[in-house]
Amino acid sequence: MPATQRQKQKALTKSHIIETAMELFAQNGFANTSTLAISKAAEVSHGTIFAHFKTQEELLTAVIDEFGVRVNARMHELAWDRSGVKEILEAHLEGLAEFEEFYTRLVIESRILPVEARNTFTIIQSTVSFHISQALEKEIAEGSLHNLPIHMLFNGWVALIHYYLTNNDLFSPGGSVLKRYGKELVEYYMTLITNN
Question: I need a labelling partner for 151 at 20 to 30 A (CA). Which of 52, 122, 140, 167 fits?
Fold first, then answer.
C-alpha cells in the first residue's frame, strides 16, 4: 500500500529533525544540545520533536543510528575493491573524513551516551573492524605483517585515529585533522606493523 501524503510529510519531517540534530550535535556536542535548540534550528515546534521521538535519548539514538548507516555504507563502498591493509586504512580515513566533525564528537562524548547509543557506536566500529581484520589476516598469513593479535592491531589503529581526532585543536585548529594528517597516519601505522 503506497504511503499517503501525510505519511510522506511525517517521514520528511522526521528525517529533517535527525539531519538538523546531527549538525547541532557535531557543532555543540551531545550534552550541550537541547531539543529546544534542535526544534528552533529545524524550524519545527518543540512538540513536533516529541511527536517523532518520545525522549531526547530516543532522538540521540536515532541520530547515531543514521550516522552508522551512512558511515557503514560509505565504508563498504570505499573498501569494496580494495584488499590490502594500506588501501583499507586509506578508505577508512576517507570515509571518516566525510563525517569527521560528528564522529569526533561521538568519540569524545561516547562515555556519556545512553547505553543504546553506545551500542550503536560499537556496531559502527564492528563494521570497520570486519574490513580491516580481513586484510590484516591475509597479510599476516603472507608474512608481510607482524603476527600480532588482530584485535590489538585494530585497536592500535583506532587509538591512533582517536588520539588525533580528540586533540584536533592541537593538530589542526579549525580544519580537518584527517585530511591534514591522514596520509602520515597510514604510513606511520604501516611502518609499525610491517615486517622488514
Answer: 167
pLDDT tens per residue, range 113-159: 888 888 888 888 888 898 899 899 999 999 999 999 999 999 999 99
What does the DSSP 8-state code read for residue 33? -
CA distance 32 to 28: 6
**How many Å apart are CA 92 and CA 74, to the nearest integer?**
9
Please give the Cα distance from 121 to 11 (Å, whole number): 24
Q: Which three cell numbers stand for residue 190?
A: 604501516
Closest CA to 102 of 69, 80, 128, 132: 69
Beta bridge partners of 194: 145
How crowded is the C-beta side of 13, counted as CA atoms within 13 Å? Answer: 18
- Do 62 and 16 touch, CB atoms closer than 8 A? no
